[in-house]
Model the fold of this input.
Amino acid sequence: MRKKILLLLTIFSIILFFNVKADNPPDPGGGPTGDPVGGGSPVGSGMVITLLLSAGYASKKLYHLKEKK
Done:
């Protein structure tokens, strides 16, 4: 039974390996019109969300740490 499973996984891996195709790299941006590299993605709001979640997680950990003592 183990040999059958190993054979099946090997065949599946080989088929998957030959069917996966990579795309061409995207346009680098930063053209003559002054477009920013990366397409102008809004990084600022993501940073605020990350900082808020980090602060909430840290306060939860501190609360549970004080609760144990």
Notes: The longest helix spans residues 43-68. The radius of gyration is 25 Å. Residues 57 and 63 are 10 Å apart (CA to CA).
